[in-house]
Amino acid sequence: MLRFFTLLYICTALSGCVVLVPFVEKDAPRKPKFETHSGCVTAQAAPKTAKKAVQVRKLTNAEKQQRLISKYVYNLGAQDTVVRIHAASYLGEMGPAARSAVNPLIRSLSDSHYWVRRTAAKSLGKIGDPRAVNALVERMRRDSDRYVNLSAANALRRIGTPEAMAAVQGYFN
After folding, report:
1. Tell me, what CATH number does 86's domain have?
2. Bridge partners of residue 44, in order along the sequence
3. What is the spatial distance between Cα 8 and Cα 24, in angstroms, rounded to a whole number?
4. Which end of the chain has fewer surrounding CB within 10 Å, N or C?
5. 149 φ/ψ angles, rounded to the nearest 5 degrees
6. Is 54 within the bounds of a domain?
7. Is residue 11 part of a domain?
8. Is residue 80 part of a domain?
9. Of 136, 135, 166, which is closest to residue 151 (Cα–Cα)?
């Protein structure tokens, strides 16, 4: 701030104008605060450094992971296709720890973009939750994109429940 006023003073001095530049002390004392107590006005100096007693608790790894899962689940509903693809992919990389994201990933199997559906199917396979079997079987049989069908079949094979294996058996033969 002081440099600004010095530069302003030099520029105006060279141009021949008269300029009043305020002098700013670096360690200027603080102005007193005025408080009113029962009709009387008293001045009280403001403390230089008021330290607040804030307790900061470090997050555990499980809490950090839950926050990430919540963020990625939120991003599954984004407008940008790339954001939805990355969110589904990251949830799959978390593996079985992301079981709370199974229902949003199942909803992503109906996404308008084929790559989001494909990534959601892969992620459900990596998570390995049996709740996704029916949706994956439906996607394997009725999706218009053959790579989504293949991703759903591979996900069912990774889940490995008897009904998933029965559905996949006819697909690969």
Report:
1. 1.25.10.10
2. 33
3. 14
4. C
5. -60, -45
6. no
7. no
8. yes
9. 136
Q: Provide the number of structural domains found in the chain.
A: 1
Confidence (pLDDT) at 57: 82
CB 71 within 8 A of CB 65: no
Contacts of 7 (CB under 8 A, 6+ apart): none
Tokens linked to 110? 């109906």
State yes or no: pLDDT of 48 exceeds 70.
Answer: no
State the residue range of the domain holding 123: 62-172
Q: Which residues pair with 35 in a beta bridge?
A: 42
Is the dihedral angle over the CA atoms 149, 150, 153, 154 positive or is it negative? negative
Is residue 167 within 8 Å of 137, Cβ to Cβ? Answer: yes
Q: What's the token pair of residue 68?
A: 């990430």
Contact 101, 66 (CB under 8 A): no
Of 77-91, 137-151, 158-172, the least confident: 158-172
- Which residue would you say has higher pLDDT here, 56 or 47? 56
End-to-end C-alpha distance for the chain, whole angstroms:
76
Q: How far apart are CA 78 and CA 57, in angstroms?
A: 31
Q: Is residue 46 part of a domain?
A: no
36-47 residue pLDDT tens: 555 554 445 555
